[in-house]
């Protein structure tokens, strides 16, 4: 999977950080130390870490991911990262 999206709420810039959905690569989620959760009422799961986005971005850079875009959507900050195929 060459793309990863991470996000956080503006008021929670120190964490937690959402790092994936139920279809995310389990190896990457394990590397990040993410836990899979399903919030009551949602019909989907998400992976979260307690770390702030900056630390998550640092970890993903170490395994070859690069930020390709970042935006704010309402009260949410979102980063899109890409890893080149070998």
UniProtKB/TrEMBL annotation:
Subcellular location: Cytoplasm, Cytosol; Nucleus membrane
SUPFAM superfamilies: GTP cyclohydrolase I feedback regulatory protein, GFRP (SSF69761)
Keyword Cell division: no
Record GO biological process: negative regulation of biosynthetic process
GO cellular component, one term: nuclear membrane
InterPro entries (UniProt xref): GFRP_sf, GTP_CycHdrlase_I_reg
Protein name (Swiss-Prot/TrEMBL): GTP cyclohydrolase 1 feedback regulatory protein
Organism: Denticeps clupeoides (denticle herring)
